[in-house]
Design the sequence.
């Protein structure tokens, strides 16, 4: 261990030298690498959490740079996958930490594999469906996780210890109905992101250090602009469909092959059958029909009013329409059904 690197952290009594050794041997996974995910990953890497996996489906865009602290203008120009760009930055920050960037969309086919072998999961996803999926996988495998969400100047966080605390479904039995604010419709300010990420990382460090008795034990919500703080201590629901009845509806269902991306005039398409694309071959095939540019991780194809960002696993983000039927038609026409 490089004691000088962690000297100020070692001076903090709840960590100390023994705790630092424990952190260097620990394993954490972050699902999502946007505003929350980059802040979490930056803090955990600098703290010396030995193995860090970052999972994200998306690529860097210019609009991310205001709040997603690991990215720069070059990443946006190159359209690097967020997980890859983040891992590259973090490997330069702390070579003692093994950072793995995974370019995948989290769904019921892969979530259990993605979190297997880790000690804690930090939520940096951007939708309730992904969080319910994470909640079920965590309850099923008794894996601690830290919920977090932020929009505008308002953020929330709760730490979930399966079999000990309420789970997400205890607090929110069903996802909110109707339209609700998102970062793409209501905006978001970086200080709100920093507050939520700080709470999540602190809770994760307590879990990794074996100091669960010091967890805050609440749903914390704070509007950092209005200076309004709320604290709720939800009881564990014995009738909960997830941690009570152990019904894993999100894990077991057959999900849709498309997802509308709120506020982005885009639809994400999954191949009906998982496959691996040869991006160089695809580029040669598409060049007669439109503008194509690519890097080793993805290909961008502009044709008519649409722009397809295609990943090697067959997934694509179709920009230029919010209509899944239109997006799937464009995908089928140029990539295949």
Sequence:
């Amino acid at each position: 261990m490089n004691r000088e690197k962690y000297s100020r952290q070692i001076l903090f009594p709840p960590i100390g030298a023994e705790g630092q050794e424990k952190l260097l041997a620990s394993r954490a996974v972050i699902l999502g690498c946007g505003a929350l995910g980059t802040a979490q990953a930056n803090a955990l890497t600098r703290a010396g959490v030995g193995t860090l996996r970052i999972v994200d489906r998306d690529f860097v865009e210019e609009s991310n740079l205001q709040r997603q602290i690991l990215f720069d203008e070059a990443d946006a120009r190159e359209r690097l996958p967020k997980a890859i760009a983040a891992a590259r930055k973090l490997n330069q920050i702390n070579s003692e930490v093994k950072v793995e960037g995974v370019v995948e969309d989290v769904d019921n086919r892969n979530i259990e594999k993605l979190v297997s072998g880790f000690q804690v999961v930090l939520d940096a996803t951007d939708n309730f469906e992904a969080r319910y999926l994470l909640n079920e996988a965590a309850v099923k495998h008794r894996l601690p996780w830290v919920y977090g969400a932020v929009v505008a100047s308002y953020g929330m966080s709760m730490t979930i210890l399966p079999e000990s605390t309420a789970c997400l479904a205890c607090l929110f039995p069903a996802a909110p109905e109707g339209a609700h604010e998102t970062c793409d419709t209501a905006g978001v300010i970086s200080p709100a992101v920093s507050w939520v990420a700080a709470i999540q990382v602190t809770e994760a460090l307590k879990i990794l250090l074996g100091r669960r008795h010091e967890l805050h034990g609440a749903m914390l919500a704070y509007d950092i602009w209005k200076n309004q703080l709320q604290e709720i201590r939800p009881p564990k629901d014995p009738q909960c469909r997830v941690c009570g009845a152990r019904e894993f509806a999100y894990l077991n269902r057959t999900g849709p092959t498309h997802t509308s991306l709120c506020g982005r005039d885009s639809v994400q398409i999954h191949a009906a059958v998982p496959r691996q694309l040869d991006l160089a071959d695809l580029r040669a095939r598409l060049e007669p029909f439109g503008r194509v540019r690519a890097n080793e991780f993805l290909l961008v194809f502009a044709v008519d009013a649409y722009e397809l960002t295609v990943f090697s696993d067959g997934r694509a983000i179709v920009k230029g329409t919010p209509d899944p039927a239109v997006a799937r038609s464009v995908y089928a026409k140029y990539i295949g059904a």
In short: The radius of gyration is 20 Å.
